[in-house]
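A reminder from the course coordinator: this example appears on the midterm review sheet, so study it carefully.

Given structure:
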């Protein structure tokens, strides 16, 4: 869709489609940007200039955007007052079953935006530009996912027991397993940081245990599995676009972190891959 046809959008459905296509395009742009500029936060940058802010505060702010926009986008009966007056808003038609996905989304982001950063022993300062990019990303992602569940999901939910239910069960199980694995490996990194604060070495140490035996970034691998489960269970195109974005964001970041571990620690286990066990 070109700029001219974008200006001619008359319904929220068309706007949604434009935003979804734009969001898909973002994944390619993110991949290109990361390959050129790296993934400059945490271990991947030493910048600590005037544009940095508290890593913990930045993290909480940028991640809280997601559940807030998602809840608004899902529960609001229509978003008319946010849209230009010529645009006809989508009508809410959410089924009870879609609430399962609302619960999964909220569960993930209560951890990601509140529990996780507050439990972390420390977090490096972050460039404000990274935080703003994450805010934009989370806003569009949460709008698309919340809105799709609120307006398009019901057609699936009215089907009788069929292959879709198998996908629902498998996908939900994958989401739960992925989230558990993500939290578990985040916890291992937190323990490593606590060890450091007791005087056992530098800011970063080599992580061991569980899937760290196979990859440098198992928390990213589990995050990917988690959202692939969400997309599989919901069948949502917005959720699949989110999965593609995560892949384009976290696969290069995992590669940079993996390369950084190898360059930083002479004894770093050679058999580990970056993010996907035995593959990459
Ligand atoms: N869905 C998405 O698109 C998306 C995007 C990004 C992140 N996430 C999720 O958010 C979580 C955090 O991501 P992240 O990129 O910040 O991960 P990360 O770079 O691995 O860092 C995670 C935390 O662990 C600390 N840490 C990392 N390596 C360490 C080591 N070797 N020794 C001691 N401490 C170490 C970091 O400290 P410093 O702050 O001091 O570096 C940071 O506080 C992950 O679970 C990830 O899956 C999701």
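Designed residues:
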């Amino acid at each position: 869709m070109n700029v001219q046809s974008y200006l001619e959008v008359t319904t929220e459905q068309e706007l949604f489609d434009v935003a979804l296509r734009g969001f898909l395009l973002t994944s390619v742009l993110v991949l290109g940007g990361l390959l050129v500029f790296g993934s400059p936060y945490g271990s991947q940058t030493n910048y600590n200039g005037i544009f940095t802010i508290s890593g913990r505060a930045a993290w909480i702010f940028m991640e809280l955007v997601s559940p807030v926009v998602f809840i608004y986008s899902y529960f609001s009966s229509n978003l008319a007052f946010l849209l230009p007056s010529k645009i006809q808003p989508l009508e809410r038609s959410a089924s009870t079953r879609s609430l399962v996905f609302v619960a999964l989304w909220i569960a993930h982001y209560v951890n990601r935006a509140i529990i996780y950063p507050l439990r972390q022993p420390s977090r490096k300062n972050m460039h404000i530009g990274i935080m703003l990019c994450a805010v934009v990303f989370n806003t569009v992602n949460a709008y698309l996912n919340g809105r799709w569940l609120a307006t398009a999901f019901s057609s699936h939910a009215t089907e009788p027991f069929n292959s879709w239910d198998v996908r629902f069960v498998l996908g939900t199980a994958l989401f739960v397993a992925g989230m558990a694995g993500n939290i578990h490996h985040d916890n291992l990194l937190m323990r490593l940081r606590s060890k450091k604060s007791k005087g056992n070495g530098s800011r970063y140490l080599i992580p061991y245990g569980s899937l760290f035996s196979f990859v440098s970034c198992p928390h990213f691998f589990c995050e990917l599995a988690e959202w692939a489960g969400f997309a599989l269970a919901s069948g949502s195109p917005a959720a699949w676009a989110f999965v593609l974005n995560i892949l384009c964001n976290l696969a290069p970041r995992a590669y940079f972190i993996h390369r950084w571990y190898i360059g930083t620690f002479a004894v770093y286990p050679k058999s580990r891959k970056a993010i996907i066990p035995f593959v990459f």
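Residues 3-264 form one domain. The chain has one domain: 3-264.
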